[in-house]
Amino acid sequence: MLNHSPTMDGGMASDVEREEEEAVTDLLRDRFRLSTITIAEAEAKQCGMEVSLPIITCISDLAFKFAEQLAKDLELFAQHAGRKSVNMEDVILSAHRNDHLASSLRVPEGKIELLEIYFIPRTLRLEERDTWKQGEKSMKWMDRRNFWI
User: Fold this and answer.
1) Helix count and strand count (H, E) for the chain
2) Exposure of 97 by Cβ count < 10 A (0-12 exposed, 13-18 middle, 19+ buried)?
3) What are the boundaries of the region Disordered (predicted)?
4) In whole angstroms, what is the distance from residue 149 CA to residue 147 CA?
């Protein structure tokens, strides 16, 4: 007899599906932990310090839990807005408790294209680097790149 539990979309998940999901989560957690350890060790070495592995592991687990909760929040914000995918508005909404983060995520009206530059692969940016038009103004590629710096 299979135990069934509700899934996020209201359906029922079998034990096999749940085990597969847990295996994927464990793999992601392990990779996240490895990345955290690598970054922490590199930063500690650069500062001439040492950081113990239990501390790094604790920080990694805390950050992973935060990322899981953030993903759930973003998904719920998008669903509430009647969308199937997350957009920048959801990210800004999720940052509302952190004033510094929220203010750095807010983009002046009409400037969202500048923010997208950092998320577009370099090969695509090279194709359109001659000029960029925003309303009546035209900015050269280097001006755009340095605008937010």
Assistant:
1) 7, 4
2) exposed
3) 1-20
4) 6
Which H or E element spans position 17? Answer: helix 15-47
- The Cα-based distances of 45 to 31, 51, 86 in angstroms read 21, 9, 37
Distance CA 95, CA 142 (A): 30
Q: Look at residue 139 and tell me whether its pLDDT is greater than 50.
A: no
CB 35 within 8 A of CB 59: no
Neighbours of 90 (CB within 10 A): 20
Cα separation, 129 vs 148, in Å, equals: 17
pLDDT digits (tens, 9 = 90+) for 28-61: 999 999 999 899 999 999 999 998 989 988 999 9
Map residue 148 onto helix, strand or coil. Answer: coil
Residue type at 134 in one-letter notation: Q
Supply the pTM of this predicted model. 0.56
